[in-house]
Amino acid sequence: MRKPTTEHNPFMESTSSDTDYDKVQESAVSDSESSIIGSTKSDGLIWISEGDKIHHIISNKLLSGFRKLGLSTQIEDIHKNACSSFMKRAKLQSFLIFSKAMEKKCGGNANVKYAWFGASKDDMHSIVSHGFGHPMHNAIWLSPEDYPVDCLQTATPNKDGLRHILLCRVILGRTELVHPDSGQSHPSSEEFDTGVDNLHFPRKYIVWSTSMNSYVFPEFMISFRVTTHIKEDRKFSVPLKSPNSPWISFPSLICALSKILPPNTVKLINKYHSDYKERKITRRELIQQARKLAGDDLLTSIIKSFKNKQNKESNEDSPDISSINFQQWESRNCPLA
Q1: With a threshold of 0.85, does the pTM exceed it?
Q2: Torsion-angle region of residue 70: left (phi > 0), alpha (psi -120 to 50) or beta?
Q3: Closest alpha carbon to 322 in 262, 278, 268
Q4: Which residues on neighbouring strands pair with residue 74, listed in sequence order?
Q5: Tens digits of per-residue pLDDT, 188-247?
Q6: Residue 302 and residue 286: Cα distance in Å, rounded?
Q7: Which of 21, 68, 205, 247 could form a disulfide with 142 if both were Cys (CB 3.0 to 4.6 A apart)?
Q8: What is the pLDDT of residues 137-170, one digit of tens each?
Q9: Rounded-to-integer distance, Cα 313 and Cα 71, Å
């Protein structure tokens, strides 16, 4: 069990509603410290100007998270949930009531965090308007504020490459360790409220479907573009000869992924690599599974980060048969299933 701890949180300092739940007015989350510009849209969102303190904090957190993987990101817009309708104000009040109840249960600390949730634009608007729908595995999985990159796969881009991500407030209470393949669909006992994938360094917050619309409040929607990412005509391949494009051996790739992905995901990729070495699956199948689990953007970023090392060691080493590289491939080569 991980006990709730009080931590410095720049997001919560930026909205006066977070510092004292009892002072939140019926109108919505307080904007008293923000110079928000623009009127409420029909979808209940308010545009936040680039000069606003909240815009600066959210942008820095999002950009720094992507920058860790060498991804160049451009923030297009940040909007705030205005809670402009009676039902939305009721949802906010419900969230605050549950926060107070969790404080009492946990001895004064509800363990409220900020977390990211990636989805399509249509899903985003549906969540802000109506709440979370029917999640897979009876829970929604959110990424801690330092790891927005983990939402890149689910933040599906439109035809213009624009992606959307939600920044939510999440009531965690007392957390327990939950494995992705455990089949768990609710807290294991009344002692626990939510789950995490790692008790000490969580990369996922797990909120059960029975409480997701009470414990999670979608507060901001950020629209952005990742300008350094794999193009549609660039695919991953397994070379039979030393490639000219950047490459990385699978053991090195797995080592790099272990610093980013949840342990169980890395374990599964490692299993597929072992199956390949034992000739249980083909190289093509190995690459397909790696791409499914890690995602093209993440793999591309890791491979590119090895480019300088490859250039320095090109005369000393050559890639083994299970290395992975990216280059121009036709869509029929190693497609994502």
Answers
A1: no
A2: left
A3: 278
A4: 225
A5: 999 999 999 999 889 999 999 999 999 999 999 999 998 764 343 333 333 333 444 456
A6: 17
A7: 205
A8: 789 999 999 999 899 888 988 888 899 999 999 9
A9: 24
